[in-house]
């Protein structure tokens, strides 16, 4: 029975979903959303804050500041509240409403940047904003997840050995790439392991992380509008890029079977299925990492009007489109009833 007194002391690390019955391919999905921050970012946040403490960078007057598309912001909010630090999250207009409300409920301040950078993302502008804050007030301590080695070290110390312990015959590991902390921590660990593991990075079409033209990306979590400073491509065997439409379809397919995951899980699973379709998978042990769950995406990925406005009517296949339009009809019937009453 786990009994804790600090929220970051608990993380479910042994839960996997076998996707064979749902998607027809043997792929084990490591679920990282079961902790008090609701995502894998709790690991990176804990490691970065505790190493800043060890190195003497934090005092009771310090204000933690970080640029985050959301999940790291929530994780830092949890830790800051628990340890008694102030925290300011600099995010952008793509951050889910529920994620912003969560951070505020935990006592953090949230600033939203709305200007796009030269690559069509918000990252450059968010970082400029953080730099300006730090230059103006020495109480701000920027953990800088994009460059902080604690980000990848967290996964080298936890995520990768957790997988290795459960799957001693692991052949291929699919990892979504944002800051590439998860990717680099796992890739470094498995490079030194007792058998070769194929490391497949999953990125989003429109991200420039591994090169390629910038483009519109609406789902937070994966993809970058700059080259990730932590990335060392010599550890990565393959890169797969997934269209957001495929991410959304995969999320809805999983949701129809009761597994409500976040957007980056849809991306990683979609990329992994594509890879498994193209390879001889007899006897192959494959694992993918699911960074969070789906509740934070109810007003985006799982909302019919958002999908229709951004991706058009054909985004979901017939089964899912039927469910979505059924939901739209119910909403419009409720609205009609309200109008008539
Ligand atoms: C939901 C989600 N998935 C994936 C990632 C990417 O992980 P990493 O930054 O370790 O590459 C993030 C990072 O914020 C995330 O929030």
From TrEMBL:
<dbReference type="InterPro" id="IPR001926">
    <property type="entry name" value="TrpB-like_PALP"/>
</dbReference>
<protein>
    <submittedName>
        <fullName>2,3-diaminopropionate biosynthesis protein SbnA</fullName>
    </submittedName>
</protein>
<keyword id="KW-0808">Transferase</keyword>
<dbReference type="Pfam" id="PF00291">
    <property type="entry name" value="PALP"/>
</dbReference>
<keyword id="KW-0663">Pyridoxal phosphate</keyword>
<dbReference type="GO" id="GO:0016740">
    <property type="term" value="F:transferase activity"/>
</dbReference>
<dbReference type="InterPro" id="IPR036052">
    <property type="entry name" value="TrpB-like_PALP_sf"/>
</dbReference>
<feature type="domain" description="Tryptophan synthase beta chain-like PALP">
    <location>
        <begin position="19"/>
        <end position="291"/>
    </location>
</feature>
<comment type="subunit">
    <text>Homodimer.</text>
</comment>
<dbReference type="GO" id="GO:1901605">
    <property type="term" value="P:alpha-amino acid metabolic process"/>
</dbReference>
<dbReference type="InterPro" id="IPR050214">
    <property type="entry name" value="Cys_Synth/Cystath_Beta-Synth"/>
</dbReference>
<dbReference type="InterPro" id="IPR023927">
    <property type="entry name" value="SbnA"/>
</dbReference>
């Amino acid at each position: 029975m786990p009994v804790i007194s600090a929220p970051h002391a608990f993380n479910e690390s042994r839960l996997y979903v076998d996707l064979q019955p749902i998607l027809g391919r043997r792929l084990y999905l490591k679920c990282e959303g079961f902790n008090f921050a609701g995502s894998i970012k709790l690991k990176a946040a804990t490691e970065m804050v505790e190493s800043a403490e060890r190195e003497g960078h934090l005092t009771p007057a310090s204000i933690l500041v970080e640029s985050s598309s959301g999940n790291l912001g929530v994780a830092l909010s949890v830790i800051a509240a628990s340890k008694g630090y102030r925290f300011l999250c600099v995010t952008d207009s793509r951050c889910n409403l529920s994620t912003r409300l969560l951070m505020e409920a935990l006592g953090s301040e949230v600033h939203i940047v709305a200007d796009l950078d030269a690559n069509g993302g918000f990252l450059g502008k968010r970082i400029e904003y953080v730099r300006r804050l730090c230059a103006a007030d020495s109480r701000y301590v920027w953990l800088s997840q994009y460059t902080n080695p604690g980000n990848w070290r967290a996964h080298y110390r936890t995520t990768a050995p957790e997988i290795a312990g459960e799957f001693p015959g692991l052949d291929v590991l699919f990892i979504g790439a944002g800051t590439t902390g998860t990717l680099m921590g796992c890739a470094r660990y498995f490079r030194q392991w007792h058998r070769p593991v194929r490391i497949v990075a999953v990125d989003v079409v429109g991200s420039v992380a591994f090169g390629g033209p910038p483009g519109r990306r609406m789902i937070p979590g994966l993809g970058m509008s700059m080259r990730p400073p932590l990335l060392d491509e010599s550890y990565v065997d393959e890169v797969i890029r997934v269209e957001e439409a495929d991410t959304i379809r995969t999320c809805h397919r999983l949701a129809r079977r009761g597994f409500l995951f976040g957007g980056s899980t849809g991306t990683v699973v979609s990329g992994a299925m594509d890879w498994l379709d193209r390879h001889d998978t007899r006897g192959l042990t494959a694992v993918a990492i699911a960074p969070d769950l789906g509740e934070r995406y109810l007003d985006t990925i799982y909302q019919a009007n958002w999908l229709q406005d951004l991706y058009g009517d054909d985004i979901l296949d017939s089964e899912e489109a039927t469910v979505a339009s059924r939901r739209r009809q119910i909403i419009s019937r409720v609205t009609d009833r309200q109008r008539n009453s």
